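User: Structure with S-adenosylmethionine, tokens only please.
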Amino acid sequence: MDISTYNPKSLKAAEFISNDEILDTLEYAEKNKNNMDLINQILDKANKEKGLTHREASVLLACDDPSVNEQIYALAKRIKMNYYGNRMVLFAPLYLSNYCVNGCVYCPYHLKNKHIARKKMTQEEIRREVIALQDMGHKRLAIELGEDPINNPIEYVLESIKTIYDIKHKNGAIRRVNVNIAATTVENYRKLKDAGIGTYILFQETYNKKSYETLHPTGPKHNYEWHTEAMDRAMEGGIDDVGIGVLFGLSTYRYEFAGLLMHAEHLEAVHGVGPHTISVPRLRPADDIDTNDFKDCINDDIFAKIVACIRISVPYTGMIISTRESKKTRERVLELGISQLSGGSKTSVGGYAEPEPEEENSAQFDVIDTRTLDEVIQWLLKRGYIPSFCTACYRAGRTGDRFMELCKAKQIHNCCHPNALLTLEEYLTDYASPETKKIGREVIAAEVATLKPEVAKKTSEWLEYIRSGKGRDFRF
Ligand code: SAM
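Assistant:
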């Protein structure tokens, strides 16, 4: 195989996601999957908590020795705790429009789907949805749109972001809007940056160019290079925090795993900062989409192993799990390195303020975890996690390399922990059920006792302000 064209510093997709390098990596992993000397060396390196290369991680992923897997899982858990503590950041998706000109064969928004209800929210409808989301307790949204230059131009996205940030309803506020829209130009990324977005999220779907082109037969998304090089344009446009991901089930998982890590290595090599988050969506049934048509869907055990291997390979990167997964699967992978999750989600265009009528299905995929946000919060608390609505880092300018420096030095804990407690208290005071409030307050009291005395004092003072209605949005 000719791997000489592989170059993580290149800006060309074919060179930083070199097909030959991936195939060579998979061959190397297969050959060494029982080579215990090498595997122990890789585990020793992973134990230092500074990450692994795509080659090293691919060997671990290929190895199916149960005792090695146990070590990987234990390490993933420890790394998550050391870098991110027991905090779990909450968010909700908000679908603004499902008009789309692409032909993605796995997505119900594809142009040829004539029976999905097509919807695009007006600014007034967005207002109603955001008020409903604020009334649930959300502070952080990920906005989602199909790709359609006529129906969903960048001006519509920008206007909607402004609408969302401007809504102040009771004690509610959306303090961070992450954006998941199709690959676009540097100029448009600059506009998103100026609009104050948090993370720009774009899933690669699949890193395998051949599969990619078959799965995206028509529309602008067909262009593999344009899509794969999007994060470089986003960073050129000034966006510091980018979120990558693969839609598992579209192509073979070992190929995707190597590609995903190579993408992270590329961003670090070129921009000095890796991805802010990695998402791990799995293909779901949806209108006009039958997952039985996709032979590369992965089972729960492989899924858990992928999550753990990503966690030990890129210890400093946030990892996101959505409501595409069941409570049981979420429970399992929260232990293996996930740091953010969605709760109370709707994947329809509208649906938070009022449920969507059954005959008008506009959803992108079927949600499995249909619990309310309050149920999710209570479940997290009972499992020893601190649900967090914190958005402080990005609002204090701790983004991109500034965030990564703190994170790599395991320093985010010092401000993140009290900030998480303060936002949890906002949730408990303003939105929680009596039972969640009771459990949450006990957890907060126990956690405050673990803070440094001067931080504990200030935190307690601010907690009291929140409870007595003297203020909101306190942060270190
Ligand atoms: N239109 C934008 C784009 O092209 O990237 C935003 C994408 S869409 C709103 C968000 C993501 O949902 C997609 O990137 C895809 O990975 C995922 N998705 C699409 N169909 C899905 C399905 N059937 N099951 C699970 N996830 C799906």
